[in-house]
Amino acid sequence: MFSGLLCFKKNPCSFLLFIICSLFATGSFAQKAEVKPKTDRELTRKIEQAIAGFGGDVGVYVHHIKKNRVVEIQADTVFPTASMVKIPILCGLFDKLHSGQLAYDSVLIYRDSLRYDDGIVGSLRDSAKIPLSYVLMLMETISDNTGSLWMQALAGGGATINNWLQKQGFVHTRVNSRTPGRADAQRTYGWGQTTPREMAELMTLIRFGGAISPDVSERMYRLLGRQFWDGQALSQLPPEIKVAAKNGAVNRAKSEVVYVHAPHGDYVFCITTKNQKDERWKADNEGYVLLRTLSAILWNHFEPRYAWKPLEGNEKWHY
Questions:
Q1: What CATH number does residue 137 fall under?
Q2: Cα–Cα distance measured from residue 184 to residue 92, given in angstroms and rounded to the nearest whole number
Q3: Residue-wise pLDDT tens for the chain (319 aa)?
């Protein structure tokens, strides 16, 4: 869908990027510019070996932007998003902000009726005031669930967000929870659903300024670059490397989408699982281990000369 545009070496300040982003937003450029990426066979083999015998279903999509090489393993199979759904919610909310229906610097009033769990937002007292921008930060940085459902409602609800996704060409990525007509999908996939390819492409769309507008995309990308939950895929990347990410976890599914600004070329990946036999909420959960293992394989494949590995004892900080 969007991968053909990414074979260009883009300078975010260049006129070329401005033109590409403008055409991206209208959807008029994608088909003409489509350059089919080639499969990275060696990396595919490494990943297939790593997921062999996994107790559940695994989906993987990797795209090295500069080389235009991909790995596709169940890349178009639908998986639960878990908290990765907060990226589509972010887009839906910023669409309202961009149109002037909401204000980024507005102050919201929390009500107990909004409470979903004991996260930061759900622990506020009734009638507490909190800036909308703070709730957005909490949604993406610490994955606050009460705040996320609040933002989903302010975005117009799941149906409005899904309509935005459909207009961008996303066929499978949808919000299910609290969305009319999607009860069956919610029973199967939970809060949201996506494919590894589509979630990686949504992250890439934001990275290159094609989501709503270049300035909106930049604001969203900065939010996605501040992650508290860095104990899985991010733990296998050098701490000095810039990343944007969102992960998700429910009992039988673990997932993470990461855009990596690597020294020899950016790459994006999405790893998803479902139907996991291991439902433990422990650092050595098979899904968590898979996220770390595959992230390390990708980094070492793309950056073999980068002298770095996780420090001894790093594993005790996984959660």
A1: 3.40.710.10
A2: 22
A3: 444 444 433 443 333 344 444 444 434 334 334 689 999 999 999 999 999 999 999 999 999 999 999 999 999 999 999 999 999 999 999 999 999 999 999 999 999 999 999 999 999 999 999 999 999 999 999 999 999 999 999 999 999 999 999 999 999 999 999 999 999 999 999 999 999 999 999 999 999 999 999 999 999 999 999 999 999 999 999 999 999 999 999 999 999 999 999 999 999 999 999 999 999 999 999 999 999 999 999 999 999 999 888 888 888 878 7
Has this prediction a pTM greater than 0.85?
Answer: yes
> Is residue 2 a part of any domain in this protein?
no
**Same domain (yes/no): 277, 203:** yes
CA 72 to chain centre: 17
7 within some domain:
no
Bridge-based pairing of strands 243-250 and 253-260 is: antiparallel
Which residues form the domain of 51? 39-77+195-319
Domain boundary among 132, 153, 181: 181
- Give the Cβ contact number of residue 14 at 10 Å: 12
